[in-house]
Amino acid sequence: MVDVLYVEDELSLALIVADSLEAHGFQVTHRENGRDAVIAFKHKKPDIVVLDVMMPLMDGFSVATEIRKVDLSTPIIFLTAMTHTEDVVKGFHLGANDYVRKPFKIEELIVRIESLTKRVAVAQAMKQYIIGDFVLDTIKSTLTYGTEQEKLSFREVELLRRLFEHKDEVVPREEIIRAYWNDDTYFTGRSLDVFISRIRKYLSKDERIKITNIRSVGYMLTID
């Protein structure tokens, strides 16, 4: 059963949509404002977030920003009556996966929910990681950006995976070297710097992704 966090402050609409989703087999948690939505997300991570943009206390864009600070893979669908292109673009830059414009038919929303949750499930089953606008496939050793695909070495795959799994945390140099080079010689330290430079180059198409060198300590991957 797909667990949906549904955030909508218009109560009459929310009741209709929540009832319809539950009738189609979804489990729905409804919240009426952005602040409560963030709390609900952190309390129990849902399979997908369906999020109104204009809400009290915290708008949908702010909610998406808070979610993406702690989670990059849970799909987010924005529901909005806003039609300006810049609003849509802003939503995608903040980490939205899809937009549904109000008014909408429940069948359209259901199809979009099913499509996104299936895609995430397939990615997880295939040992894929969604890193910003990239997909890292640890089985095929590939890093994909749109239609472009880069073949990575084993060490590149494992290094990027480790940095991403510890996103926003410093991964010590010694820990990486012990894991993939077995000792802490000058040569292996220099090799690590070269690998980090290569990974930065691979990821440079997405300006949100940064790998920061914490001098004499290690590296930290962040996604703005």
From TrEMBL:
Gene3D superfamilies recorded: 3.40.50.2300, 6.10.250.690, Winged helix-like DNA-binding domain superfamily/Winged helix DNA-binding domain
InterPro entries: CheY-like_superfamily, OmpR/PhoB-type_DNA-bd, Sig_transdc_resp-reg_C-effctor, Sig_transdc_resp-reg_receiver, WalR-like, WH-like_DNA-bd_sf
Keyword DNA-binding: yes
CDD domains noted in UniProt: REC_OmpR, trans_reg_C
Signal peptide span: none
Residue ranges of the annotated DNA-binding region, renumbered to this chain: 126-223
Listed GO MF terms: phosphorelay response regulator activity; transcription cis-regulatory region binding
Any single GO BP term: regulation of DNA-templated transcription
Domain OmpR/PhoB-type: 126-223
4-aspartylphosphate: modified positions: 52
PANTHER family reported in the protein's UniProt record: PHOSPHATE REGULON TRANSCRIPTIONAL REGULATORY PROTEIN PHOB, REGULATOR OF RPOS
The protein's name in its UniProt record: Two component transcriptional regulator, winged helix family
Organism encoding this protein: Sphingobacterium deserti
